[in-house]
Design a protein that fits this description.
CATH superfamily: Histone deacetylase domain
Order of helices and strands: HHEHEHHEEHEHEHEEHEHEHH
CATH topology: Arginase, Chain A
Helix content: 40-55%
Bound molecules: zinc ion
CATH architecture: 3-Layer(aba) Sandwich
CATH class: Alpha Beta
Largest sheet: 8 strands, parallel
Strand order of the largest sheet: 2-1-5-10-9-6-7-8
Length: 392
């Protein structure tokens, strides 16, 4: 993919090129009607009850908005109130019978979709704006109205064609992929899923297609949803377009960042996406009660920085970011603010006068042996998918 001469200096060259491209975009190719590069999608229904039974987590959206405001970020991004997704739009990722059954079960008002996803009045309308927000972001970026968008209420990656589960009703990411394919004719869409859980619904729906799906998640054969092994690589025309990095409990930042830099980044460069979707679930944070990956804000900062840089390097900045997991509101919104500042062109670091307070001040309880578990999976995937050897 890179010719011999250039590959000699690929690291430095790519950085310089990304910078030049981003300057060109900002100065010459931006329609004059655009005021902001980055959109924050927010609907007032986010202030109400969420899909998970962890009621403490429902306040994370309002807490996030207040934090963005305090940091001055709402003046740096354009806030957009999304429209509800229509049933026709939902049916690009789900069967009509499933959509109808969700609507009818919510109207009946009780029960649960799975063990941990309860039905409550208003859930259907809440699900429509979660999907509508991701769709709005995809269309605004696809149509050139923005470079980046963040929907904290999206990333509902466990929802499958005929199934609502794991706090996910409808799969907004797949609906967005369908819109990008059908309305904008995109052929190379990459999804990077950094949530602590495997995105089984997203993977399942796209498994036979050349949409790149890369996921880093906790896996031990039992941890929910108990899918996402390194040997799941896609099927048929989709073979080689799925990559899963299983991570052990308490893995910590180092293996996560190792996989991101030595597998995710080269996969994206080889794939040459026209559009990148990042599922920025932050439930792997060490203060989060759900996943226990012992990640810190340093890992989320580097994820945001790298994906933002890659979007400019590879696809003119087209980057749509969804939320996902994150059940300790105070930790989740710090990670979100680091992301939003990065998308707005800032460089948040622990010693930054404004953004420094977003970073963790204590070490995470990580397992130093985790790197030895993760490295072979990364090597295997580099060999199978990229024809490369072990990374140093
Ligand atoms: Zn999750
Ligand atoms: Zn940017």
């Amino acid at each position: 993919m890179v010719d011999g001469r250039w590959s000699m200096v690929a690291g430095g060259y790519n950085k310089a090129r990304a910078f030049v491209y981003s300057r060109l975009l900002f100065n010459n190719h931006r329609p004059s009607t655009i005021m902001f590069d980055t959109i924050l999608l927010y609907h007032e229904r986010y202030d109400g009850r969420g899909f998970s039974p962890l009621s403490d987590s429902w306040r994370r959206y309002r807490l996030g908005l207040d934090l963005f405001d305090e940091l001055g970020l709402l003046e740096r991004v354009r806030r957009v109130r999304p429209a509800e997704a229509t049933e026709t739009e939902l049916e690009t990722a789900h069967s009509p019978a499933f959509v109808r059954s969700v609507r009818e079960r919510v109207a009946a008002g009780e029960g649960r979709f799975d063990r941990s996803t309860p039905i409550y009045p208003g859930l259907y309308e809440r699900a429509l704006v979660a999907v509508g927000a991701t769709l709005t972001g995809a269309r605004m970026i696809g149509g050139g109205e923005a470079l980046h968008a963040f929907n904290p209420g999206g990333g509902l990656h466990h929802a499958a064609r005929e199934r609502a589960s794991g706090f996910c009703i409808f799969n907004d990411v797949v609906v967005a992929v369908r819109a990008l394919q059908r309305e904008f004719g995109l052929r190379r869409i990459a999804i990077v899923d950094g949530d602590g859980h495997h995105g089984d619904g997203t993977q399942q729906e796209l498994y036979g297609e050349s949409v790149l799906y890369v996921s880093l998640h906790r896996y031990d054969g039992r941890f929910y949803p108990a899918t996402g092994t390194a040997t799941e690589l896609g099927e048929g025309a989709g073979y080689g377009y799925t990559a899963n990095v299983p991570l052990p409990r308490r893995c910590g930042d180092a293996p996560y960042l190792y996989a991101l830099r030595t597998l995710v980044a080269p996969l994206l460069r080889a794939y040459r996406p026209e559009f990148i979707i990042m599922q920025y679930g932050v439930d792997g944070h060490y203060q989060d009660p759900m996943v226990r990956l012992a990640l810190t804000t340093a890992a989320y900062r580097e994820t945001a920085r790298l994906l933002h840089a890659l979007s400019h390097e590879l696809c003119a900045g087209r980057l749509l970011v969804t939320g996902g997991g994150g059940y300790k509101p105070e930790a989740a919104v710090r990670c979100w603010a680091i992301l939003l500042a990065t998308l707005a062109g800032e460089n948040p670091t622990p010693d930054h006068p404004l953004y420094g307070r977003l970073f963790d001040s204590e070490p995470a309880p990580e397992d130093p042996a985790a790197m030895d578990e993760v490295r072979p999976y990364v090597t295997l995937l580099r060999e199978r998918l990229l024809g490369l050897g072990a990374a140093t």
